[in-house]
Specification:
With 279 residues, this protein is of the alpha/beta class. 49% of the residues lie in helices and 19% in strands. It is built from 11 helices and 9 strands. The longest helix has 31 residues, at 2-32. The model has no long low-confidence stretch (mean pLDDT 91). It binds ligand C2E and magnesium ion (3 copies). This is EAL domain-containing protein.
Length: 279
C-alpha cells in the first residue's frame, strides 16, 4: 500500500512538474516581451483620509494581460520578474508611467496628489537606485514629494546600505513608506534609524479585525507606534464598515481597500477624482 501511494505520489509530482515548470518558462518568455507588446498597464487604488474623506493619494498596482495566459496576478509574475532580473526593466517602466502621469496632472494644474509605487527588494538594492529616481523626477519635472516609494521590510537588510539609500531618497524629497508592515520579521529598531514617513499596516491584520481581537490589538498598536514616532499610517485591505469604525476610533488617518475602491484604470481615476478637484 505504501509503495502504491509512493508511486501515485511520484506520478502526481511528475504531472505537477510537467505542468508548472515549462509553463513558468513560457510565461517568463511572454513576460519578457510584455512591455514592447503593451500588455502592461497600471491600476490605481485611492487612499482615503478617514477623517475628512478626502483622497490625495493613490497606489500604483501593475497589471499584466497576456494573449496566452490572460490576466496574470502580480503575486505570480512579480516573483518571476524578480528571479529573472526583468524586474529592473519592468520597475523602471512603472516609475516612468507614474511620473508621466504626475507630470500630466501637474501641468494641467490639478490640486497636488501623490502616487505610491511598489519597489521590489532587488530594485531597491541597486547601487544607483536613488539616482534613477532623481533622473525620473528631473525628466518629467515633477514635484519630488508627489512620488512615494513603497519598500518592504525584507528589502531593508543591510543596515549601512539601507540607511544610505533611504537618506539619499529623503534628500531628493520623495515620500518613503514601509509596505506590508508587521510581516517582515525584522527588528523594530530600524524605525528609529531610518527616515521613514509612512507605515502601511499589512492587510492580514485588517482582515477579520472586527472578529479577531488580536488583529485589532496589533493594528491599534501599530497606529500608536507610528504616531509616537511622528509617522503617518495607512491601513491596507479595508473591506468592511466595521473595520473603518475600529480604525477611526484608533485614530488611523488613512485607509485603502475594496470598501472604498478596487484598484481601477487611470480613466476611472480621472473621471471620479481628478475632474472634481480641477481649479
Ligand atoms: P501590495 O503592495 O501590498 O498591494 C496591495 C494588494 O492588495 C494589491 O494586490 C491590491 O489590489 C490588494 N488589495 C487592495 N485592497 C484590497 C482589499 O480590500 N482586499 C483584498 N483582499 N485585497 C486588496 P495586487 O494588485 O494583486 O498586488 C499584489 C502585490 O504585487 C502587491 O502587494 C505588490 O507587492 C506587488 N506589486 C503590484 N504592483 C507592483 C509593481 O509595480 N512593482 C512591484 N515591485 N510589485 C508590485
Ligand atoms: Mg504596496
Ligand atoms: Mg501591502
Ligand atoms: Mg507587497
Amino acid at each position: 500500500v505504501a509503495k502504491d501511494r509512493g508511486r501515485a505520489h511520484y506520478r502526481y509530482f511528475q504531472e505537477q512538474m510537467n505542468l508548472s515548470f515549462p509553463n513558468e518558462a513560457l510565461m517568463e518568455s511572454h513576460l519578457r516581451r510584455a512591455i514592447e507588446k503593451e500588455e502592461l498597464t497600471i491600476h490605481y487604488q485611492p487612499q482615503v483620509n478617514l477623517i475628512t474623506g478626502e483622497i490625495n493619494s493613490f497606489e500604483a498596482l501593475l497589471r499584466w494581460n497576456n494573449r496566452k495566459f490572460g490576466y496574470v496576478s502580480p503575486m505570480q509574475f512579480i516573483p518571476l520578474a524578480e528571479e529573472s532580473g526583468m524586474i529592473m526593466r519592468i520597475g523602471d517602466w512603472v516609475l516612468d508611467e507614474v511620473c508621466k502621469q504626475l507630470e500630466y496632472w501637474q501641468k494641467k494644474g490639478y490640486r497636488p496628489v501623490r502616487i505610491a509605487v511598489n519597489i521590489s527588494p532587488k530594485q531597491f538594492k541597486q547601487e544607483n537606485f536613488a539616482m534613477k529616481i532623481r533622473e525620473k523626477i528631473n525628466k518629467y519635472g515633477i514635484t519630488p514629494h508627489s512620488l512615494e516609494v513603497e519598500i518592504t521590510e525584507s528589502a531593508m537588510t543591510d543596515m549601512q546600505d539601507t540607511f544610505a539609500m533611504l537618506k539619499e531618497l529623503k534628500d531628493i524629497g520623495v515620500v518613503i513608506s514601509i509596505d506590508d508592515f508587521g510581516t517582515g520579521y525584522s527588528s523594530l529598531s530600524y524605525l528609529k534609524k531610518y527616515p521613514i514617513d509612512i507605515i502601511k499596516i499589512d492587510q492580514s491584520f485588517i482582515k477579520d479585525m472586527e472578529l479577531d481581537e488580536k488583529n485589532a490589538a496589533i493594528a491599534t498598536t501599530i497606529i500608536q507606534l507610528a504616531h509616537s514616532l511622528g509617522m503617518e499610517v495607512i491601513a491596507e485591505g479595508v473591506e468592511k464598515d466595521q473595520q473603518v469604525e475600529i480604525l477611526k476610533s484608533a485614530n488611523c488617518q488613512k485607509a485603502q481597500g475594496y470598501f472604498f475602491s478596487r484598484p481601477v484604470p487611470i480613466d476611472d481615476i480621472n473621471q471620479s477624482y481628478m475632474t472634481a478637484i480641477q481649479p
